[in-house]
Amino acid sequence: xxxxxxxxxxxxxxxxxxxxxxxxxxxxxxxxxxxxxxxxxxxxxxxxxxxxxxxxxxxxxxxxxxxxxxxxxxxxxxxxxxxxxxxxxxxxxxxxxxxxxxxxxxxxxxxxxxxxxxxxxxxxxxxxxxxxxxxxxxxxxxxxxxxxxxxxxxxxxxxxxxxxxxxxxxxxxxxxxxxxxxxxxxxxxxxxxxxxxxxxxxxxxxxxxxxxxxxxxxxxxxxxxxxxxxxxxxxxxxxxxxxxxxxxxxxxxxxxxxxxxxxxxxxxxxxxxxxxxxxxxxxxxxxxxxxxxxxxxxxxxxxxxxxxxxxxxxxxxxxxxxxxxxxxxxxxxxxxxxxxxxxxxxxxxxxxxxxxxxxxxxxxxxxxxxxxxxxxxxxxxxxxxxxxxxxxxxxxxxxxxxxxxxxxxxx
Length: 411
Fold this sequence. Notes:
Distance between the termini: 37 Å
Radius of gyration: 21 Å
Number of helices: 21
Number of strands: 0
Largest sheet: none
Helix content: over 70%
């Protein structure tokens, strides 16, 4: 049975790297779900094991924060931001800066996947409809959303998972991770500005309004802001984070104007299911003798993710093969006793590494897919053109910061 579990584990993460099974319309979530079904059918795990393996607090916190993001989306906040940017009348360089700042700052307090999901079609319509090339702005949006999300424990799924796993303090995390995240935003802007300079030379006319734009609902927007502040304040109390966030999310559902079905429907259920399945597959693998033998060999050889020299390359390779969320689940599952400094480093480096290739993070894939729906192709080479230099530069800055602060030794 141990050999079956190991084989299924390897095949699952191979599927995460490929993103699909050739010949089938099966994505990463479907692959992970099939693996769990295989484990159950073979008797390798039971329902009780799955209940123990899945970190319910992480799933609940993610769900609550997705409801919060849905509140802003339903209130028309993202459309308001896009309209404000397009009405600025700024030149391409300033417009690029506004997109980068908006994507990064919003992603620091809201789920970055939902930020790019909402803003991508709006930027395509606003910039493409006025004679500009949306692609450099979309690359900047994806890069900024990843970089900005690294600043806080609620910016992206992998940070939420790391925070829950390690019981990290919200403000202590931001004190360590926010400075290199802000530096990474500058790197994103400079990289796109330099490497897409010819496309950015195309003028983008300002407009009074966006096609089909509706004014933001100020009352619903105010509720969203109040809910965000309440969740962050609850994080510094003794109440479990997931309980406080879920209570605030439940209050948001009690609305006379917004249907709870629409709010709950905006939750990324595919991502939640993917995370739950990967928790199970990884936990099953860690129970095998093979897992113990591999970990013993890695520790004996000095390959443990508590140094920059190991964690940096590991995050870069794993994030751009299996994706940064699966990479974090895998690393924290195999090494559950990482120090706070190693967890800070894992959050920073895995998130910034996701900017390298279009497959590096879910946010990048969402931008490409939403752009295609709007009629624009953001290809692999298009993204890598600025993605590779921005990733290497931002990871270098983050690594130097972590070493200088004593949070992560060089080797």
